[in-house]
Amino acid sequence: MPEFRRADGRIDIKSLTLLEIEAALTGLGSERFRALQVYKWLWQRGVREFDEMTNVAKAVRASLAERFYIPFLDVVAVQKSIDGTHKFLWATEDGHRIESVMIPDDERNTLCVSSQVGCAMACTFCLTGDLGLRRHLKPSEIANQPLQVRQKLDEQARISNIVMMGRGEPLHNLDNLLPALEIYLDEQALNFSHRKITVSTVGLVPQLQKLAEALQVNLAVSLNATTEEQRRQVMPITRKYSMEALLAACRDLPLKHAKRITFEYVMMAGVNDSPADAVRLVKLMRGIKSKVNLIPYNENPDRPTIRRPADAVVKGFQHHLVTHGIQASVRVTRGRDISAACGQLGKADPDKARVDEDRIQAIRIRREGEGYDASRFAFDDIV
């Protein structure tokens, strides 16, 4: 794994694996068991300073502080939806903005995590693609998102599920994603079950195969079309990895423990929501251990030509799939009023809408003066 260094030469310790921390400590003349102590302090206790590691010898803490630093994301704001969804706007060390979305439900609390600053995939229905790719997130930046959300929300909002569906294409950043996922899964770190983690992809075929071989997490493929031409129009990555090649790779994946691949299907009126599309989708799913998640498009002014299908069309589409043996669900839209729904992340980017404390306060004052219901636009400043 590459080392992530600050200008002062110190290394990001939270982007290191437990074995790498162990090697670093033994190189400093410390005992190997100290590595697990440090690792637990980082990921179970979430400490910000080495001096907080009270069961680690003072001399070792001093040596660590000379060579390493403990990174955290800065919380710019937390926006709360009328449906209980929270959107976290984070600032990275170099000033970029990323987002995480906490989606509460009756039986679970799902955190949607970002993997890149921006995205290179340029899917027509997704605002994040407008930003282009600024850079990949480090392992620590991916893993810090659930850690810091845990710290900010009360115990009743405990995270039960992780979905890698925030800003960015996770498999485009596979080298940093894999160590972050290992931190998620490690019982000595964040301790999530592999059954509770889902990684979504537009269909980077070689990386999809590598991920399936490396870790037993759930896989979600963003399909969104039923013909090659249709998919090329809405997902440019299809020009490199055809839908045929993608589906063939899905059929050959070494799925374990009765896992199924989730195929995400953003429904756009007049684009991919016809009865003929439903018929073709049934055929495409043949031979794949799959389930389909239908996602009615979340309309926004930046995409005026793309429309959400009528509810009756979505229900009819789902009915055709189910009656032909396809497990199919319709995703309930959450967080639309705060631009936290599927395809909407990116509106908090500083180049488009810089968010800071002065601006948040100005918005509050102006909207309260306009008689706006503040409960529907609740930025909670967390410092």
Question: Can you give a write-up of this model?
Answer:
With 383 residues, the chain is an alpha/beta fold. The chain folds into 2 domains: 11-69, DNA polymerase, domain 1 (Orthogonal Bundle), CATH 1.10.150; 74-350, TIM Barrel. 33% of the residues lie in helices and 18% in strands. Strands 14-13-12-11-10-9-6-5-4-3-15 form an 11-stranded mixed sheet, covered by helices on one side. The two termini are 32 Å apart.
Short descriptors:
383 residues, 33% helix, two-stranded parallel ribbon, 2 domains, single chain, DNA polymerase, domain 1, eleven-stranded mixed β-sheet
Briefly summarize what is shown.
This protein is of the alpha/beta class. It has helices spanning 18-27, 33-45, 58-67, 139-152, 174-185, 205-214, 228-234, 243-252, 275-284, 311-323, 350-353, 357-369, and strands at 11-12, 68-69, 74-80, 86-91, 97-104, 109-112, 116-118, 133-136, 161-164, 197-201, 218-222, 261-267, 290-296, 328-330, 378-380. The chain has an eleven-stranded mixed β-sheet, with helices on one face.
